[in-house]
Amino acid sequence: MSAALELVGVAHDFPVRGRTLRAVDGVDLAVGAGETLGVVGESGCGKSTLARIMLKLTRPSEGRVRLLGEDVTDLMESAMRPRRRHLQAVFQDPVSSLNPRLTVRDIVAEPLRPLGLRRTAMSQRVLSMLEMVGLPADAAGRYPHAFSGGQRQRIAIARALAAEPRVLICDEATSALDVSVQAQILNLLADLQEQLGLAVVFISHNLGAVRHVSHRVAVMYLGRIVEQGPEAAIFDHPAHPYTKALLAAVPDPAPGAAVPVPLPGEVPSPLDRPPGCHLHPRCPRTGPRCAAEVPPLVEFAPGHHVRCFYPG
Amino acid sequence: MLEVERLCVAFRGQTGPREVLSGVSLSMRQGEILGLVGESGSGKSVTALAIMGLLGEQGRISGGRIRLDGRELTTLNPSDIRRLRGSCMAMIFQEPMTSLNPLLRVGLQIEETLHAHLPLSRAEARTRAIQLLGEVGIPAPETRVDAYPHQFSGGMRQRVMIAIAMACAPRLLIADEPTTALDVTIQAQILALMRRLRAERGTAILLITHDLGVIAQMSDRVAVMYAGEIVEAAPAGELLHSPAHPYTRLLLASLPTTRRRAPRLPVIEGQMPGPGTIASGCRFRMRCPMAVPRCTDETPVLAPFQSGRFVRCWRAGDIAT
After folding, report:
1. Residue of chain B nearest A42, judged by CA positions
2. If you measure CA to CA, which chain A residue comes closest to B212?
3. pLDDT tens digit string along A203-262?
4. For the sheet containing B33-37, what is the strand order?
5. pTM for the full model?
6. B39 to chain A: which residues are within 8 Å by CB?
7. Where are the domains of chain A?
8. Do the chains contact at A179 and B217, CB–CB below 8 Å?
């Protein structure tokens, strides 16, 4: 199977006052048609930089980006533009990602413009998109401010899917929503993904939401993928100490659930990443090799990769 | 210790006052953690601001009573309530960066609170500030006391806010979404800190959050708010195990968890009505799968339901069986 979107050895550096901040470090990821890849991690782990690289908004310092089998790493924006219809995004804040001066019709039609459709075909397409995301047809003539947060996120999804993309990047797409609305949007994303055979990258700090929509999950810590595997393996049998701590820290609404023992300390600044395994100063299972060598990402179980000298 | 009785709050609107809180009643004992849970616009933050006397120009208490240690707060003049804020009750917010003064060293901000309420010398206040920073888990407090807020991480800034709030040993701490802006591993640390303060000092905590997981981990009792009313109140374990109000049930069911993957999440259709849009009847009835004609005709009251529990629903008895 060829991947719809593939990152190979991607790294990205930001210059910060004469120093180098490595935000993303040696990331290999692939997502195929009909598959949702969840990417989780805390602030500063590099997941937003990764999203920008996937969307070709940032050119990585190292590594390659392949879209539908084609290497697009070095393409200029003008060359990228016709390919953009295959690669769309939904972001966290539906207020700032929708132009307040455009009607919903114009917003959803935006990615259709380069396709040169006739007016009637275009407006039919807009209406069918609104129906698909569960908005009434009369929404087309109104402006974004007339809608609630959940409805605005539906508008953003309708726009993203209007030109029938093959890859959808969701960057914290449900993080600003209330629980009951989040459930509606998660269901919608799962349905559309299945119906349309989309390749979806679902980036979020909300682990429950990630489990709900993802087939495979990658866990990031300070720019590196520390564990990657099928959803059930990551959530039911995590092997990396960081994944275990992250999962244990999510407060469980089940009555009588165990109160987590917090991981000590904080995520170090990406400017001062510890040598060897980035987690070793905070890790409950650290050994002599951890400070000296970077552990490789090795296969722990079929399809389940872990970057740790002492996994399990 | 804290008694809120039939509290009503109205905000000035374009077409006259709009009632955003309708008869909210709460009570808290010393050392208790009460979780107040609800979605955006349910009135949970307004409840907190009303207790703190921080409603501002646009809002006013239009009915009801708030008593702290037997003292009526709704009739106090602004200078008296200012004296209580910080000493008897204190509040922390979601985003510590907007609550801290970026131009003042954090030590000075703690000392400011101490001087406002206690007769301390400058040296004493500084010693106390260092001690407080140590108590909330700031490493090397004797040097960090001279740092500015931007030199702290989000989690450390929230620790500083807690140190300021706890400076005069208040009896009541109101925490409004204190960990919502933090990463989960840092959230776990801040929640552990709040539990420790409660255990060591007997501070009562009114914890406002939309996160039912945080509620489960922290609260002794829970009150669920919907559209300006409390719809259910119960001991935390019972509420999470057997929610009685249809809204609470759906809210719990619609939460994706890391424990298992549900094929589909149950959803609550529609959205919460805005303030003042429902004149009578149950405010949840339009979204409620259990609604019957009585829910439109008669307004349900928050009625006792089993021991120690209260539910605002005509059908709670039917649902439980």
Report:
1. B183
2. A253
3. 999 999 999 999 999 999 999 999 999 999 999 999 999 999 999 988 888 877 777 777
4. B89-92, B172-176, B204-209, B33-37, B221-226, B229-235, B310-311, B303-304
5. 0.87
6. 178-180
7. 5-102+152-306
8. no
